Amino acid sequence: MQTDTSGKDGAQRIRLSGSWRNTGLPPVLKELDALSSNFSGKRLEIDFTDVDHIDTSGAWVLKRMMSAVSERGGEVLTKGVSDTTEQLFQAIPDALKEAKAGSGPKRSLFERLFTPVGKIAYAFWVDTVSAMNILGAAVRGAQLKFGRTSGLSPAAVVNQLDNMGVKAVPIILLMSFLIGAIIAQQGAFQLRYFGAEIFVVDLVGILQLREIGVLLTAIMIAGRSGSAITAEIGSMKMREEVDALLVMGLNPVGVLIFPRLVALAIALPLLTIIANFAALFGAAVVTYVYSGITFEVFLTRLHEAVAFSTLIAGMVKAPFMALIIGVVAAVEGLKVGGSAESLGKQVTASVVKSIFVVILMDGLFAMFYASIGF
Question: Taking phi first (over 0 means left), then psi (-120 to 50 degrees means alpha), and beta for anything else, what does residue 104 get?
Fold first, then answer.
C-alpha cells in the first residue's frame, strides 16, 4: 500500500494503490492525519485506479480525511472509484454526521448535575405507575374471574409455592439459626459484664420476632425468588411469549404475575414463622453452651419477655413485604429488552430495588408502631 503526493497549480494529488483493509491501515494513518491537518491548497485529487481492495475501515479512514480537507476549505475530487467503493462512501457520511452530532456542544454544570437527577426521578415515576398498574390489573382480574373456571389456577399457585416456599426452607433455616446464634453470643458476651446474661433471652426474642425475622427473610426471598420472577418474566418477554398472551386475548398480569403474588403473600409469612423458630433454637443452643442457660429457663424467660403483640408486630409486615417484592420483580421483568445484557441488568435492578424498598418499609412500620405506641 503506497501513497504519492505532488503539488501543482494549487492542487495536491494523491495516488492510492494496494489493499486498503483494516489490517493494512496502521502504516498510513499518520500520513493521512498529517495531510488532513496540514492541507492548505485549493483542491485535493485522489486517484483510486490502482486500489485492489477496500473495506469499510479503509473507506471510513479516507472519508474522514476527505471531510477534514473539505472543512478546511479544500475541494476534493476522486478518480477511478469503483461502484463498491462509491457505495461505501455514500453510507459513511451519515455515520460521521451522527458521531459529530452526538458529541454536541459542551453542557453547562447545571445540566450535568441535574440531568441524572431528573432521569432518576422520571424513572421512579414510571416504575410507580407500572407497579400501580400491575396491582390494579391483578385485583381487577381476581374480581372478574372469582368463581369461574377460567380464574386463578390453584395448580399455578401451588407450583409457585413449591418454588418460593418449600425449596427456600433449608436456606432460611440455616440463615436464621446462625443469626439467632450470633445475636445470642454477642448479647451474652456484652451483658456478662453487668451480670445480666439472662436478659439475652429478651434481646433475642424481641429483636427476632419484631424486626430481624421478617426483615432478613424478606431480603433472602427478594434475592432468591424476586430475581427468579424477574428472570422468568424477562425470558418470556425476550421470546415474545408475553406478546403471544396479548394476541390470544389473555392478560399477562393475571396469567404470569398474579399467581406469583399470591404465592409470595402465602409463602413469606410461613417462612417468617420458620425463621423465628430456627433463630430462637439457635439462640437457645448458644446460651446453653456459652452461658449455661438451660432450655427450660430459656423458654420460661422467653414467655415472660415476649408479648403476643410483639409477634403480631413482626408478622403484619410479611404480606406487605411479599407484595412489594413481587411487584418490583414483575415491573423489572416487563422492562427486559431483547438482549441477554438487558435481562442481567433488570435482574440486578430487581434485587437491589426490592431489598431497598423492603428495608424502607420496615423503617416506616417502625415509625408507625412508635407513633401509636404498639
Answer: left
pLDDT of residue 116: 86
Q: Is 235 helix (H, G, I), strand (E, B) or coil?
A: helix
Question: From CA 27, how far away is CA 4, in angstroms rounded?
Answer: 14
Helix (H, G, I), strand (E, B) or coil at 25: coil
Treating both helix axes as pointing N-terminal to C-terminal, what angle do 200-207 and 169-191 enclose, rounded to 10 degrees?
A: 140
Q: Is the pTM of this model over 0.70?
A: no
Could you tell me which of 123, 129, 333, 335 has the C-alpha nearest to residue 225?
Answer: 333
Query: Which H or E element spans position 78?
Result: strand 75-79
Question: What is the distance between the alpha carbons of residues 220 and 242, in angstroms, rounded to a whole number?
Answer: 28
pLDDT in tens, 133-143: 888 877 665 55
Query: What are the φ and ψ backbone dihedral angles of 120, each rounded to 5 degrees?
Result: -65, -45
Q: Which residue has the higher pLDDT, 364 or 250?
A: 364
Q: Which of 77, 88, 101, 95 is nearest to 53 (CA)?
A: 88
Q: Tell me the three state secondary structure of residue 17.
A: strand
CA distance 262 to 322: 9
Would you call 111 helix, strand, or coil by DSSP? helix
Q: Residue 75: helix, strand or coil by DSSP? A: strand
DSSP structure class, residue 23: G
Give the DSSP letter of residue 191: H
**Over 90: is that where the pLDDT of 45 sits?**
no
Q: Give the pLDDT mean for 48-70.
A: 79
Look at the block and give the residue holding cell 446462625. 178
Count the Cβ atoms, other than its own, within 10 Å of residue 303.
11
**Which residue has cell 373456571?**
149
Q: What are the cell numbers at 184?
A: 445470642
